[in-house]
Design goal:
Blueprint lengths: L1 H13 L20 E7 L5 H4 E7 L7 E8 L4 H8 L17 E7 L11 E4 L10 E5 L3 E3 L6 H5 L4 H11 L8 E5 L4 H13 L2 E6 L5 H11 L3 E4 H4 L14 E4 L3 H10 L5 E4 L22
Parallel strand pairs: 8-9, 8-11, 9-10, 11-12
Antiparallel strand pairs: 1-2, 3-4, 3-6, 4-5, 5-7
Subcellular location: Mitochondrion
Main location: mitochondrion
Family: Belongs to the zinc-containing alcohol dehydrogenase family. Quinone oxidoreductase subfamily.
Length: about 300
């Protein structure tokens, strides 16, 4: 996706730290000119048009606040939808994008006793604005993570792994050799679903969009533990549900539209479809002719 690619590069660029003198605290009462490089938007719309770069002075540190130097922050579809004004949760403008991120503590407020400089922390409260290189956050919005946890893994810990785990646990009691079918199998959440199911002995049927490098993508998802990987076109003629594997008890739909309807066709009687996204921006009506399983959302 062009928008996400460009913003991803832009976000990585602002997160490259300036050459601060880290042998002394970068925050103190005599150095109020610490600047934060940020991406910000003042109106909803196309991210390529409304997201702007700015530098602004970091405000004084409150008693329960923490100064964090950001190390990494991802670009999620929800971030794009929020900027566009299409996400269910509306933010106040102007706003700094970014729900997830990891950073290092540089300074803590006078009342904070359980957090020290140099600790690696992630944001566990949404809409904090992580697309910046330095930020001030409430202590209650931060959770310490192990230093050994990679920056990429830490920065993406709070959304997709948790979503995958809850969808696999909350709707169907899955057992070994049960089958889960999902579209968006190469998404961040989809990859987490694959790996969790592999660990549990649950089989996955993963649907992806066709592309020139489709064989490489299939090999990659298989290396993560995917049982089957099909394109949307291939799914229309698959025969695996006629005896090779059981019909899926659980379908995970992040695309919607015709792609979601395809999943519905292959589900077992009494199965459950969980829709957690609508990347196609298309609504598909389900009728009795689509399949015989129940749609439980």
């Amino acid at each position: 996706m062009k928008v996400m690619t460009i913003l991803h590069k832009a976000t990585l660029n602002i997160l490259k730290p300036k050459q601060f003198s880290y042998h002394v605290p970068i925050w103190n009462q005599q150095h109020r000119n610490l600047m934060s490089r940020q991406l910000v938007y003042n109106e909803f719309g196309d991210p390529l048009h409304v997201v702007k770069y700015r530098e602004c002075e970091v405000p004084p540190l409150g008693k329960q606040e923490v100064l964090v130097r950001m190390l990494a922050a991802p670009v999620n579809p929800a971030d794009i939808n929020t900027i566009q004004g299409k996400y269910p949760v509306k933010v106040s403008l102007p706003s700094i994008p970014g729900n997830e991120g990891v950073g290092l503590v540089e300074q803590v407020g006078s009342e904070i006793k359980d957090l020290n400089r140099g600790k690696k922390v992630i944001l566990t409260t949404s809409l904090q604005g992580t697309w910046r290189d330095v930020g001030v956050f409430q202590r209650s919005s931060l959770t310490v993570v192990p230093d050994a946890l990679g920056d990429v893994e830490a920065a993406t810990l709070t959304v997709n792994p948790c979503t995958a785990f809850r969808m696999l646990c909350d709707f169907v009691c899955l057992k070994k050799d049960d089958v889960v079918i999902q579209n968006g199998g190469n998404s961040a959440c989809g990859q987490n679903v694959i790996q969790i199911c592999k660990a549990w002995g649950v089989k996955t049927v993963n649907i992806v969009r066709n592309r020139p490098e489709i064989n490489d993508l299939k090999a990659y998802l298989t290396s993560l533990g995917a049982t089957y990987v099909f394109t949307e076109e291939e799914l229309r003629s698959v025969q695996i549900f006629k005896g090779e594997v059981k019909k899926p008890l659980l379908a995970l739909n992040c695309v919607g539209g015709k792609s979601g309807a395809q999943l519905f066709r292959y589900m077992d009687h009494g199965g459950t479809m969980v829709t957690y996204g609508g990347l196609s921006r298309s609504v598909k009506k389900f009728t009795c002719s689509t399949g015989i399983c129940w749609l439980k959302i």
